[in-house]
Amino acid sequence: MKSFKIALAQFSPYIGNLEANAQKMLEQANEAKKQQADLIIFPELSLIGYPAEDLLLRPSLKKRTQKAFEQLSQIKDIVVVFGFVNETEDGQRYNSAAVMKDGQILGIYNKQNLPNYGVFDEKRYFNEGHQHLVFEYLGHKFGVLICEDVWSLATVQQLAQLNVETVLVLNSSPYEVGKPQHRIDTMTALAKQLNLNLAYVNQVGGQDDLIFDGTSFLISKDGELALRAPTYQEGLFVVEYEAEQQRYKTGEQAAALDTMAEIYQGLVLATRDYVQRSGFPGVILGLSGGIDSALTLAIAVDALGADKVQAVMMPYTYTAQISVEDAAQQAKTMGVTFGIAEIHSIVNSFMQTLYPFFGNSPVDTTEENLQARARGTLLMGLSNKFGNLVLSTGNKSELSVGYCTLYGDMVGGYAVLKDVYKTIVFELAKYRNSISEQPVIPERVISRPPSAELSPDQKDQDSLPPYDVLDAILYAYIEEDLSQDDIIAKGFDQAVVEKVVRLVDRNEYKRRQGAIGPRITSRSFSRERRYPLVNGWKPGL
Amino acid sequence: MKSFKIALAQFSPYIGNLEANAQKMLEQANEAKKQQADLIIFPELSLIGYPAEDLLLRPSLKKRTQKAFEQLSQIKDIVVVFGFVNETEDGQRYNSAAVMKDGQILGIYNKQNLPNYGVFDEKRYFNEGHQHLVFEYLGHKFGVLICEDVWSLATVQQLAQLNVETVLVLNSSPYEVGKPQHRIDTMTALAKQLNLNLAYVNQVGGQDDLIFDGTSFLISKDGELALRAPTYQEGLFVVEYEAEQQRYKTGEQAAALDTMAEIYQGLVLATRDYVQRSGFPGVILGLSGGIDSALTLAIAVDALGADKVQAVMMPYTYTAQISVEDAAQQAKTMGVTFGIAEIHSIVNSFMQTLYPFFGNSPVDTTEENLQARARGTLLMGLSNKFGNLVLSTGNKSELSVGYCTLYGDMVGGYAVLKDVYKTIVFELAKYRNSISEQPVIPERVISRPPSAELSPDQKDQDSLPPYDVLDAILYAYIEEDLSQDDIIAKGFDQAVVEKVVRLVDRNEYKRRQGAIGPRITSRSFSRERRYPLVNGWKPGL
Description:
The structure is a homodimer. Chain A is an alpha/beta fold and about 550 residues long. The first copy, chain A, has helices at about 20-35, 60-70, 120-125, 155-160, 180-195, 260-275, 290-305, 320-335, 345-360, 365-385, 395-400, 420-435, 445, 460-465, 465-480, 485-490, 495-505, 510, and strands spanning about 5-10, 40, 80-85, 95-100, 105-110, 135, 140-145, 165-170, 195-200, 205, 210-215, 215-220, 225-230, 235-240, 245-250, 285, 310-315, 335-340, 390, 415. The first copy, chain A, folds into two domains: about 5-255, Nitrilase/N-carbamoyl-D-aminoacid amidohydrolase (4-Layer Sandwich), CATH 3.60.110.10; about 265-510, Rossmann fold. Chain A contains 18 helices and 20 strands. Chain A has a seven-stranded mixed β-sheet with strand order 5-4-3-2-1-14-15. In chain A, strands 6-7-8-9-12-13 form a six-stranded mixed β-sheet, with helices on one face. In chain A, helix 7 links the parallel strand 16 and strand 17. The longest helix of chain A is centred in the C-terminal third of the chain and has 22 residues, at about 365-385. Chains A, B: In the C-terminal section; belongs to the NAD synthetase family.
């Protein structure tokens, strides 16, 4: 028995690019060696990245994996544990971990528990493994598990019975509010219960709608946290095992983030990774003087830098003067490119062209939608001409009830606040203002009553319940999966609940054509909530 | 042993509406009794419909299923076999069939083989069954299987070993080109191999992107086809088993459809069901004088009737006079409401508003997209004002390579030709003209070179390879999953293949925001091809 060092590589892969990922893993292994590490572990499926979706089914994946193994075989004098897709001779495909040293594969572990719920579709791609992997190294007995495995008590118990001292857990565990601490709490209890050291390494980075927060950690079998890596940061974290004390020495202890900081920084990371990895030079967004676009602008600037962000105010008859002022002020404070494009002539030309068709039909939301679509088309024109990605600014409350215009304010490639309820939008705006010397979002934007400004003196509350009530009903219906009757039974007004539920159900078609956006809740509108469009399910019980 | 009659209910459920489905099943059972049937079988999951997606996870499903069982218990004097979601006391959820008589459940079968590939996600929802169900009735031994089960030779063999004479197979098997005949051919071989009678009943109707074609059948154990129900039609089909001859008497033999008829009628069914079940009074589409919108119009009229269809021609500077003439002629021939809305003033107002931003930037596709988005916004305005659903008219070839404008010609709730390659669009147009006395699509629309008419003298072939080459490459890349290198090795021009593959990969973001549309191939752009947007996979091997 001797002392040794483990490096946890909190790694941000480029999904699908095995060559680039292997190269980066090689560099990280060399860096770990410089820090005297004996062992380096990478997250689940680190070679291709998670989730690679149907890329996992491409026939040439096996060849690409072999090539990447050749790259990794250049790593010398350190044991490397990493995730890869294991396609076997008998036609099976596993979500696997390899233990490699000096180009030799010492062992392969196939994930046993495949999540196939929520955002996960692993049974579409993988077969289940049925065997544990244990290896001795430096006089210490290691086991390997992959993500969902460690949430199955039966699986971990079996491994514990093999006299393993430290379990290396490779993860690609997506973020949701509170998840970083929840993992640590659960794993601390598990480590103590089974008397195991747990080295938990998690992927970091944004991938489409998923945020991976990292927050890797190492828990000693007595429940002591020997390492807590920072949330949302790529990096290499080395922990030492002291043979004499038979325990891991306490290393870096990154602070846990407060809820608003956790959400805000997650949105920043997701936006940065989406924009940069898609190859856009920058972003453009419509700045309305309202709080959603104001917060989106702040996130964009924090993600990319002011020089990469263009904001456009597109006023019309119903736009308040203070909206224009506040938009201009924020743009100035944040130092972004700002322009004003009035939409009167465009809306007029649409109305004139449609007049022969509309005749004397009464004015309704059609005319409001024309304003939103004029703005959407302007933003897309600027995007097409200069290459910046359009950020969509709608929040989860609006998207839930369809309080948004398809092809209008919904245009864009990334919807930063897609999974953020309006009540949380307010909290995030206040949080962002609290962390800089002068507020980046004008106070008036936060304090004035929300309005879409699509008709005279319009307020959101004219057609929607107050946001605290709306969000509570939405949370119960969407996140908690309660029925209409259940929600009414909780004490909410019957007519209001019926209206909200009906709107959520009816607006699935809008959400289906909306941009993707980062997931922060346990039930986002994405691969996680799959409802048919033609749908005869009646609200009620 | 005695003679008896089986009714196959080729049933079109309303997804999620268990009450309505149970009511219709009750009516069909009574109709079957009138025809002296002793047994009636419904498709897989007939009570909730297929696929119900995350409705299957709603907590109140169990109560709703119980209520529907009460409705069905009113059926007397006939054995009913139907599909339902079986949620057991121990928290398992199965895709099941019930055998019911006079309100008593005689047996329950839980599906053993759960497809979780392609368009299927059954492992997200269901546990696997592990037991066969066999019942004797009228001196005859029946077994029950559900859809995927009958494609597992091991499963069917086990059932055959229980001395079953007739297997009742409940299906919700989605259509793709040639599938109706393929099922019959495969099942004929299986019936003979295992000496089993197979009564195969399939769901019919459009459900979002899936078409269920019906084409139910009954094959005697000697391989004789005793029944072939028509493709795409709801109905009740009764077959008699003659005890003396110990075989099924030959009943209705619907003709197999030629390929183009099969596709065309499938698109008609899908469009009708989507529009009607979503509750739209009718549809509206942009008629450009090109073949895609011409074919979409014909399908819409055949699906809904001319009085439910509105067509709008939206000419601009680059629109040829013959385009306007041909559009007007087709609208007249088909008897649909037709209007013309010129878009010059709208495009001009956009250009003037954007001029201060664009400055002296050279003209590019931005200006083309403005035309497409002006048209999209006009269609959406008309849709919002009068309630008609916008049909999107793009084809699979265009969508594959992104030769279409997001929020422009891509607007709409249903994309009728989404899974139809351009070369098939031509075939379908000719087919449709061939079945009516006078052609409904003007000959010139079919014969002139395709053009988006977004810039002077533009032809599709200026920026794309000829459609027969393009479609062959797309088919190899998308349906056959060949790599770029594989396709080049087949003899296609390297530069052309590289360009096409790059375009397909890069335009995933457009497709992700596009309307749904009916699936007719083995690899549609829908739940069947799930690629990440941020995607570093390199073309090549």
